[in-house]
Amino acid sequence: MKKTLGSLAFLLVVGLAAGWIYLRRSEYSLLYLPAPDIAVTPAHFQLRYQDVQFLSADGTSLTGWWIPANRPRGTVVFCHGNGSNVGGSAHLAPEFVKRGFNLLLWDYRGYGRSEGRPSEKGFYADARAAFEAAEAMSRKLPILAFGHSLGGAVAIQLAKDRPVAALIVQGAFASAADMARRLYPNLPIDRLLSVSYDAAKTSAELKDLPKLFGHSPTDEVIPFQSGRILHAAAAEPKRFVLLAGPHDDNSWFVPGGAGNAELEEFLAAFKP
Question: What are the pLDDT digits (tens) for 96-113?
């Protein structure tokens, strides 16, 4: 009898360990989709740019592009989503440059040509390093943090950690737990996560920082409701605008497009 109970206990421990390992691996593979190949550069859009390399706090080597504007009025540090790299964001470079903003496109650890392995703590440290790299090249210009999708949580944390002048968030979620509850409503996945990415909680601490949130009701990746919760939690001053199209659409960069007037007004606060 004791032997049987011992065997059952052993099998239970093994089963729990295997389940835990599976959960961690599944979480990682769903959350991080690092793209190593860079297919597009700013040169495709007739823009001059400079390859940059800088170190995160733990010594991880990070890479990106510095794309200068003529007579810039500010600098944007862009935090991309979880399934892209700098090449996937290169098409946005003309949008910032023609509006008078330098742009730092950069890759998190494990993405593009950056070294290391993705992690929440690592991403936050990488963003701080990107800010410092941009600051060194900006010559005292104001620095804006811009985050898309998962990059929204990273940009929001950056705004807490460093003196950014403004924050723009597009198609982002309230927290990893909120996303888990929406994706798996019948499972307690939200209580088993190893990450938090609690953008809503962090944004509530960003008092006196101008914030612009944009989300499309037809976003097929990040539920619109999660974006609304994120905005509702944020401290004032803040504004929410309706975008149009799918998750990766950028209607607010299109003249006359959904959210364009609000974005232009927000950026107009930064004079040449």
Answer: 999 999 999 999 999 999
